[in-house]
Design brief:
Helices cover 56% and strands 8% of the residues. By secondary structure, it is of the alpha+beta class.
Length: 616
């Protein structure tokens, strides 16, 4: 019988602290992980806690095979996107998808799942949002009907290979650490690249069939609350941002008090957005807030009904709809409205339109922010961006095209194609990627080394610069992984995992193995909904392996249940992919509960059936 001691108590306290920090979000998850790492290190200075963690293991995560592999995958994914792989995929879908919702759903979901198997699923989803938007516009199928299936299948696509999601990449490292304390006959084998592919195929196919047969009835219809689900731009602007979708032109008469006032002053006083200042028939698009209005010029304005009423009634302006004006100052082929999403990894999170000088630096006028159930159209320049915010802008198409090269924004409005490398680097990038995959399959080299062959090749062949490679890496993810790995080691070395497994065995010894597996899947699913999938994997894999050994079950199956179930993130919008699609899709939490509830259950059923079929 394992005795519960002070070291175990300390580890349990750190686990509870980790979960609390992740749920409450008092600090960001990477800061939380590093704080736990430092606390764990300081604990080893206290007499009686020296054996909690070996000194060399504290920062072991930063050099782990898993962390280095994820960095390489991020760089490879960025390089493939830069040479136009996603452009080619999008065009292929547009050619062959047709105009039926069933065919579109099937083709989009299967494609994004395959891409997610070799790159981060949030990156694949981000790349596919403009594709889905374009498909919606061309087929007049509401984007609400396509975006959630795409997002869910991007998450499930991470189960197709051992490099498709952070938990699966991390699994081999975790089992390697566990093997240090296991007898030779009970040690876990290292899984190869396609070890989980049969299970992943079953899950992805289930997801596609679900949305084609059942899920389509649960997806939101086009309503006012789901304003992004309609195809017409005017309706989206009116319903999602509470703005009049028309552009109005007002001439500044002689002697008016606005003469010599700045654009910013007028916008503040009248609660409107000035998207152009027209001098002698020549418009200045998205003028900066310090641009002065002169006598005889005209201004192009967009605003709420209240703001437009102020211009008409209080300021005495005659507002002429741009489409009715004698001169076409706003031709569709030059400028227009566009929408972008702020991803979780954007450097703009926590900053406002005013902080980043959106007009001066990006030549865009920010008109409104949609944040799920919240809409900001007044004082919008002072609203700090949050992950998943959808920003409505007005700009020239050239400025919007430049924005598509910026990784801090995800454009969701179809626009001009961004120029890509036409110097024949697409075949080179694909060849480098193929070399990495071949090395993984046919050599005994470490996974990280195989992937870095492709990653450094992308730099050497100038597909992207080293600075761009650094920018491609999500350092928050890296520090999260590296910061939590020592806690996972401590869970095992302190005996906490064995103690938990021993006591669980007493309760579960008479329970059928499939019920124990289902319970583990449910626990992992719950953990991944309230904290990161990486954190859930690090904390639960040691417990699951020890439980399997105590029950004389296959420890690899139990470990895989945890690593796979952390992708079962459909019930609420806590996963990064779900946060990303929530704004563009106009989804509410209830939409995830309706569509994600049944697929959460199906995921567990199919996962367990496939695991026991392919691994027993």
């Amino acid at each position: 019988m394992i005795e519960f001691d002070l070291q175990m108590l300390a580890v349990v306290f750190l686990i509870v602290a980790t979960i609390t920090l992740f749920i409450t979000e008092v600090v960001s998850i990477d800061v939380a992980a590093l704080s736990i790492l430092i606390a764990l290190g300081l604990l080893t200075l206290i007499p009686g806690f020296e054996g909690l963690l070996a000194p060399g293991d504290l920062f072991k995560g930063f050099s782990s095979n898993a962390v280095i592999s994820i960095m390489a995958i991020m760089i490879i994914g960025e390089a493939l996107d830069r040479v136009g792989v996603m452009r080619w995929v999008a065009n292929a879908i547009l050619r062959f998808a047709g105009r039926t919702e069933t065919r579109l759903t099937t083709l989009v979901c299967s494609t994004v799942a395959v891409i997610s198997s070799f790159m981060q699923n949030v990156g694949a989803a981000a790349l596919f949002i403009p594709v889905v938007s374009r498909l919606s516009a061309q087929t007049e199928i509401p984007i609400t009907r396509l975006l959630m299936p795409m997002g869910f299948c991007a998450i499930m696509g991470g189960t197709l290979t051992m490099v498709g999601s952070s938990p699966l990449i991390l699994l081999n490292d975790l089992t390697s650490e566990l093997n240090r304390n296991l007898n030779e006959g009970t040690q876990l084998p290292e899984l190869d690249l396609f070890a989980v592919t049969p299970i992943g195929i079953c899950l992805v196919v289930t997801g596609i069939i679900y949305f084609v047969v059942i899920g389509r009835r649960l997806l939101p219809q086009t309503t006012r609350e789901h304003a992004f689900g309609v195809t017409r731009v005017a309706d989206r602007i009116k319903n999602a941002y509470l703005l009049n979708p028309e552009i109005f032109i007002a001439a500044i008469p002689t002697g008016h008090r606005f003469i010599a006032k700045s654009v910013g002053e007028i916008e503040n006083e009248c609660d409107v957005h000035i998207i152009a200042v027209i001098e002698r028939g020549k418009p200045e698009w998205s003028p900066t807030r310090d641009t002065l209005v002169t006598q005889g010029c005209e201004i192009g304005v967009v605003g709420s009904e209240d703001g437009l009423t102020i211009l008409r009634e209080r300021e005495g302006f005659k507002l002429v709809c741009a489409t009715d004006h004698t001169r076409d100052y706003f031709p569709q082929e030059i400028a227009g409205f566009s929408e972008v999403v702020i991803p979780a990894e954007s450097k703009l999170v926590g900053l406002s339109i005013g902080d980043i000088w959106l007009r001066r630096n990006y030549h865009l006028a920010g008109l409104g922010i949609n944040r799920g159930t919240e809409v900001f159209s007044r004082g919008v320049r002072h609203i700090e961006f949050q992950p998943g915010d959808t920003l409505l802008t007005f700009s020239t198409h050239d400025a919007f095209a430049d924005l598509q090269k910026n990784r801090d924004f995800i454009p969701i409005t179809p626009g001009r194609e961004v120029d890509i490398d036409q110097s024949g680097k697409l075949p080179i990038a694909l060849a480098l990627f193929a070399i990495s995959i071949v090395l993984i399959i046919f050599s005994d080299l470490m996974l990280s080394l195989c992937l870095w062959v492709g990653a450094i090749g992308m730099v050497l062949f100038r597909i992207l610069s080293m600075e761009q490679a650094y920018q491609a890496i999500s350092w928050k993810t890296i520090f999260l992984l590296a910061g939590l790995m020592p806690l996972g080691i401590a869970v095992e070395t302190s005996g906490t995992a064995a103690w938990l497994a021993e006591h669980l065995t007493v309760v579960l010894v008479a329970v059928p193995p499939i019920v124990v597996q289902a319970a583990l899947a449910l626990v992992a699913t719950f953990f991944t909904l309230v904290m990161s999938n990486v954190g859930a994997t690090v904390l639960l894999v040691p417990v699951a392996v020890n439980l399997a050994l105590a029950l004389n079950a296959d420890p690899m199956i139990f470990a895989l249940i945890i690593a796979l179930s952390t992708s079962n993130s459909f019930l609420i919008p806590t996963h990064q992919v779900n946060v990303l699609i929530m704004g563009p899709g106009g989804y509410r939490v209830v939409d995830f509960l309706k569509s994600g509830g049944l697929i959460t259950v199906l995921f567990i059923v199919v996962e367990l059936a496939a695991l026991n079929f392919f691994f027993l």
